[in-house]
TrEMBL record:
GO terms for molecular function: D-glucose transmembrane transporter activity; fructose transmembrane transporter activity. InterPro entries: GLUT, MFS_dom, MFS_sugar_transport-like, MFS_trans_sf, Sugar/inositol_transpt. NCBIfam families: SP. Its main location: membrane. It comes from Amphiprion percula (Orange clownfish). This is Solute carrier family 2, facilitated glucose transporter member 5. Keywords: Cell membrane, Membrane, Sugar transport, Transmembrane, Transmembrane helix, Transport. It comes from the Eukaryota.
Length: 493
């Protein structure tokens, strides 16, 4: 019976696939893809510089332009995340994604023709537009999914976005190897690969309905929402879901969609905002990107030959993908709080051990292999806990009127964090060496304590119940005052 119950949602699963391909998959592929054509793009920049100015570009300028090409993705994504507060509200979730795919297709065309036009500025602009596509796509993808899923599947569904990120990372690493597209003549096409998922999503999304919750709560289109739900879930008994939406609509009746300023200043969402900012959006600061960065150095020290590095990197990507997939089956059973809280705690501890091992790596010949093991450990823990939950939790925290602006804030923290980590991390490593991990350890331990002590569990609760749980925190002192007066009265009597 259970299996049949889950099979009736097959159209919802198809929607998940379509959203994933043009949504978070693009993020994964953009992050990992850029590493392999680095050499070719840099020599192309050098070549165009020669043709223009008649002199070779000096190394530091070349390095700066290159790190900007890598980092400009996060700036574009920030712009996209800012628009994710207005576009999906004005045009609906579906149209926003269709517009978004056009942006990615334009970026892909810029990449393809950059070599013919002899312009590395086109690569920069293309990366910026890809970033915009990723920033807007990721937020709308999560909104669309969370608003189309039944509550028993909500954690699993929003987590598929992390699975697609992992899948995108692995795909980017695989097509980037020399045997496939990592060659001198193929690089413009490698950079343009993201155009294909965009075209796919653009065509396929036309067959799917708009997000039911958006239709009901924002547009007041009860009938359209019911039709969309019946089509997606293939269920006629929708009373519970419609009641829940009705409740949420009444609680936000007459409220306009909130602005970012409202979210930042309102007392009634203070703890939701903290939960969004510290453990979820700050996931950049738990050091996972640093690990990817450091991995190659550690592999080198263990005596892994240069030409084998790519395959180990694919191994790391695959490990993350497998553990995130595991997490998606655990999240509605174990709950968000435990997975994320203990995940961060274990990450912090493992990175402490790694820092110590990196400091004493010359004492013994087997230590570098232990370090490889530790890197894989951290990535496993990251995939099982923080990585997935940081995607699923934001969809649980806010009611409809607050959600778009909340995603703007989490996007801003996330992408600016990524930009900073991307631009500064090289310099930090030069300054601190392996001790740079201690910054991340501090962050992980802090997040873990925050999750375990304060944040209520959201698994299997309706949006309104979650709000009530958080109100206990938001109005904590006032509740205490109320109780005190009650006690005082009772003792007097």
């Amino acid at each position: 019976l259970e299996t049949r119950m889950y099979l009736q949602y097959w159209r919802l699963y198809l929607l998940t696939l379509v959203l994933g391909i043009g949504g978070s998959f693009q993020y994964g592929i953009q992050v990992s893809l850029i590493a392999s054509p680095a050499v070719h793009v840099q020599s192309f920049m050098n070549h165009t510089w020669m043709l223009r100015y008649g002199a070779p570009v000096d190394d530091s300028t070349n390095q700066l332009i290159w790190s900007f090409i890598v980092a400009v993705l996060s700036l574009g994504a920030w712009a996209g995340a800012i628009h994710s507060g207005s576009l999906p509200v004005r045009y609906g979730r579906k149209k926003a994604l269709l517009i978004n795919n056009v942006v990615a297709i334009v970026a892909a065309l810029l990449m393809v023709f950059s070599r013919m036009a002899r312009s590395f500025e086109m690569i920069l602009l293309g990366r910026f537009l890809y970033g915009y596509n990723v920033g807007l796509g990721l937020s709308v993808h999560l909104m669309y999914l969370g608003e189309s899923s039944p509550k028993k599947l909500r954690g699993f569904m929003t987590l598929t976005s992390s699975i697609f990120i992992g899948f995108g990372k692995v795909m980017g690493q695989i097509i980037g190897i020399n045997e496939i597209m990592g060659t001198e003549e193929m690089w413009p096409y490698l950079l343009a690969v993201s155009g294909i998922p965009a075209i796919l999503q653009f065509v396929l999304l036309l067959f799917f309905p708009e997000a039911p919750r958006y239709l009901y709560i924002d547009k007041g289109d009860t009938e359209g929402s019911q039709k969309a739900l019946q089509w997606l879930w293939q269920e006629d008994n929708l009373k519970l879901e419609l009641d829940d939406m009705q409740k949420e609509r009444q609680s936000t009746q007459g409220e306009k969609a909130k602005t970012v300023k409202d979210v930042l200043t309102s007392r009634c969402v203070r703890w939701q905002l903290l939960t969004l900012a510290i453990p979820c959006a700050g996931v950049q600061f738990c050091g996972i990107n640093a690990l990817y960065f450091y991995a190659f150095d550690i592999f080198r020290e263990s005596g892994v030959p240069e030409d084998q590095m790519h395959y180990l990197a694919i191994g790391i990507g695959a490990t993350e993908l497998i553990t995130i997939t595991l997490c998606s089956f655990l999240i509605d059973r174990a709950g968000r709080k435990k997975l994320m809280g203990y995940g961060y705690l274990l990450m912090g501890v493992t990175m402490c051990v790694l820092t110590v091992m990196l400091s004493i790596k010359d004492l013994n010949s087997w230590i570098p292999y232990v370090n490889i093991g530790l890197i894989f450990c951290v990535i496993c823990i990251y995939g099982l806990g923080p990585s997935g939950v940081s995607m699923a939790l934001p969809a649980d925290l806010f009611l409809q009127a607050w959600r778009p602006s909340a995603f703007v804030i989490s996007g801003t923290i996330n992408w600016l964090g990524m930009f900073l980590v991307g631009m500064l991390f090289g310099y930090v490593v030069e300054g601190l060496g392996q001790f740079c991990f201690l910054i991340f350890v501090a962050y992980s331990i802090f997040s873990s304590a925050f999750m375990l002590y304060f944040v209520p569990e959201t698994k299997g609760k309706t949006m309104v119940e979650i709000m009530e749980d958080f109100n206990k925190l938001n109005y904590k002192n006032r509740a205490a005052d109320v109780e005190k007066t009650d006690v005082a009265l009772a003792t007097k009597l």
